[in-house]
Amino acid sequence: MTRGTGCSRGLQGLRWDVASSLMAAVLVISFLTLVGTVLAAVSPDARNAQRQVAPSGSLSATPPAEPSLYAVSSPDSSHCWAVGEDGTVLATKDGGADWIKQDTGDSSSVFSAVCFPDPKHGWAVGEGGVILATSDGGNTWSEQASGTTTHLKGVSFVDAVHGWAVGSNDLGYGDVILSTTNGGVSWTVKHPKSGESYGLNAVDFVDGAHGWAAGGSSRGFSVVDTSDGGTTWWTELVLPEMGARGPVFYGLSFASPVYGWAVGKGVYRSGDGSTWGDVIAATTDGGSTWTLQTASPTMAPLAAVDFPSTTHGWAVGEYGILATSDGGYTWQPQGPKGIPSLSGVAFSDETRGWVVGRAGNVLATTDGGATWIQQYPSLPLPRISKVAPPAAKRNALFAVTGTNFGASQGASVVRVGGQACASYTSWSDTQIKCKVPVKASFGSTKLTVTTSAGTSNVVTFKVKR
Fold first, then answer.
1. CB–CB of 166/148 below 8 Å?
2. pLDDT at 39 over 60
3. Regarding predicted confidence, which is higher, 40 or 70?
4. How do beta strands 459-464 and 391-393 pair?
5. Last residue of a domain, one of 376, 405, 421
6. Which DSSP string corresponds to 359-424?
7. Co-location of 354 and 405 in the same domain
8. How far apart are CA 267 and CA 32, in angstroms?
9. Does 3 reside within a domain?
10. Which of 142, 392, 427, 465 is 20 to 30 A from residue 297's alpha carbon, by CA?
11. 3-class DSSP state for residue 153?
12. Parallel, antiparallel or unpaired: strands 111-115 and 122-126
């Protein structure tokens, strides 16, 4: 049994409701009395053809509002599922060229996590202890008896029969760990150590034996792990240094039995007070010890993380997408600007992945995040109707007229013969004025406009000597 690729949970808690705010206040007051050290308990042996867009840009149009999505799962490069509010389950079987809403028979549940270990078998879990399952790729869904009403926030399956789910109430207490060895026909309910609270939000198993669950309580960032398939769980209290206080992990991903990452939020103290910020923690020994990786550029809570390998990983949150290609030693922002808060991420390999979030947004990449496209809800493609003048010398000013260019440029581009224009004098939804690239090839060539929605129709433009 191996890790179910792309099994992901998302941070439904990024909707900062009253309960979440109360929990945050309790955590801060309690946690600021602790000393910022790292405590670790010894654990046992440890885990399309698609339209291309610019590396970053601004969303060029506002599609109709859709229910927010909280989690996404991708077992391979063609199949992907996303879940969220109002019983929403979205699915694609062609890499995202087409997304459909699957009928689960449930239009009221809030799904917080989803896992498909293969294209046929999948599970969605959420508020009230709800568990839905499918064995035919989502054509039909059925409810499974979880044995709990606790909010289930994470789920992980390594094959069609072995799976685990974790959760806690919205104040971070009442932890529960569920496990099944028959695909959810029956679930066994476990509770962590009596009297202890871990605020479990996420779970990840790399095989049938090795797994981890993570969260946070007033005592600190918490991780529990198992090496016997969940029969017994070891407890770790992780309190990273480097200025982070106020603990909670929301996302968890292990690329092997020894390499793992957890993301969430902590309180960063400075001379003028304190503020919530992002936290990225990593382990290279199966969770026996954790270290805080360099703070990311977002300084905002992170909701989810996925590492398809020990080197390549992605994390998402309120301010967008972060990526690493060196195991987390460095993180860089990716994706277009103006994306509403993101809650889930899943990569089937080092190049193909999806992120989901508020307003039902689904973005995808097929090149490791160098370019991202918005697949759902669909945005109108830019369209060129006229270029004037139709021929010009290098560095000469020309105008592109059309529709759906976007109100501002962001990182959208005009390309002449594959060369991006570097100098723009104006940009609106219907007209762009820019200069012919100085390295554009002479003669007749192709001219296009690329935004976050995709690439426009091609028109002919002549670069004069």
1. no
2. no
3. 70
4. parallel
5. 376
6. GG-EEEESSTTSS-EEEES--PPPEEEEEESSEEETT-EEEEEEE---SS-TT-EEEETTEEP--E
7. no
8. 9
9. no
10. 427
11. strand
12. antiparallel
**Same structural domain, 191 and 53:** yes
Which structural domain, as residue segments, surrounds residue 176? 8-376
Q: How much is the pTM?
A: 0.76
**1, part of any domain:** no
Q: For residue 21, which phi and psi values (nearest 5 degrees)?
A: -65, -40
Tokens describing residue 209: 């034996």
Is the confidence at residue 440, as pLDDT, over 70? yes
**What is the H or E stretch that residue 198 is in?**
none
Share of the chain above pLDDT 90, in %: 62
Question: What is the number of domains present in the chain?
Answer: 2
Between 145 and 56, residue with greater pLDDT: 145
pLDDT, one tens digit per residue, over 263-285 is 998 765 555 556 667 889 999 99
Q: In this structure, is residue 430 part of a structural domain?
A: yes
| Pair 453, 359 in one domain | no
Distance CA 433, CA 344 (A): 37
Give pLDDT tens digits for 322-355. Answer: 999 999 999 999 987 667 799 999 999 999 999 9
* Inter-residue contact 183 to 135 (CB < 8 Å): yes
Enumerate residues 6+ apart whose C-beta is below 8 A from 231: none
CATH number of the domain residue 455 falls in: 2.60.40.10
Helix (H) / strand (E) element for 26: namely helix 18-31
Query: Which residues, including other chains, have CB under 8 Å from residue 47's CB and lie 6 or more apart?
Result: 3, 204, 205, 206, 207, 210, 211, 212, 254, 255, 256, 257, 258, 259, 260, 286
| Under 8 Å between Cβ of 125 and 165 | yes
pLDDT of residue 268: 58
Tokens linked to 363: 């973005």
Query: Could you tell me how many residues make up the chain?
Result: 465
Return the closest-CA partner of residue 356 out of 6, 106, 54, 102.
6
